Amino acid sequence: MLEGILIFSEERLRNLLDLRVFMEVPLDICLIRRLERDVHERGRDMDSVLNQYQATVRAGYLEQVLPSRQYADLLVPEGGDNPAAVAMLTARIQAMLEE
């Protein structure tokens, strides 16, 4: 297993993967998660997190990460909060392991 937000950007890496999954998470949820993580785990203040998000993070996602979803074999809307997609992904992985 290999994961990363820019993993599909590199063709050589894409070609090594048996199954490429892109977890689509709404930007508001991404921001909330970033705020919670950076404030609670990294000791940052909310203003600095919001400033960074507005200055670089959101644009970077839209310009670099989001376009790479075209290389995914499976798009999972709502990320891990999508039981149907998670079940389908689990079944596909189990089938691949049995092959």
Strand and helix map with partners:
Elements: H1 11-14, E1 21-24, H2 27-40, H3 46-65, E2 74-77, H4 83-98
Parallel strand pairs: 1-2
Helix pairs in contact: 2-3
Q: Can you describe what's shown?
A:
The protein has 99 residues and is mostly helical. It has a single domain (7-98), classed as Rossmann fold (3-Layer(aba) Sandwich). 55% of the residues lie in helices and 8% in strands. It is built from four helices and two strands. Strands 1-2 form a two-stranded parallel ribbon. Helix 2 crosses helix 3. The chain is globular. The protein starts with 10 loop residues before the first helix and ends with a helix.
Properties at a glance:
99 residues, mainly alpha, Rossmann fold, two-stranded parallel ribbon, 55% helix
Give a concise summary.
The protein is built from four helices and two strands. The chain is mainly alpha-helical and 99 residues long.
